[in-house]
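Late entry, copper (II) ion complex.
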Amino acid sequence: MFFKKKNVGKAVIKDGVQEVRVTVDGGYKPDRLELSVGVPTKIIFDRQTDSACFDQVVFPDFDIKADLPVHEDFAIELTPREKGEFGFSCGMDMYHGTLVVK
Ligand SMILES: [Cu+2]
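Prediction complete; structure with ligand written out below:
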């Protein structure tokens, strides 16, 4: 039995803002984003695929639904106010990632 290796990205805090980059290509890489609670956050999506599946990214807990441009960085800005795990997904809810707020 093999376990899928966890694909974790830890945000780096710079000038009071934590940033983490996510490559979008057949999924979100990384798909677990570790954030610090209460710190303004930029999640920078780099969409490498024109698959319509990734036209949008949705963060239901943060009321965010955004269109992702192709081959261009696009930052989602939010501030996690509570610790816990919060999902995000493509617009069709097929591909998923998780914000892990500590
Ligand atoms: Cu999709």
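The pocket of copper (II) ion is lined by residues 53, 90, 92, 94-95 (CB under 6 Å). Will revisit in the morning.
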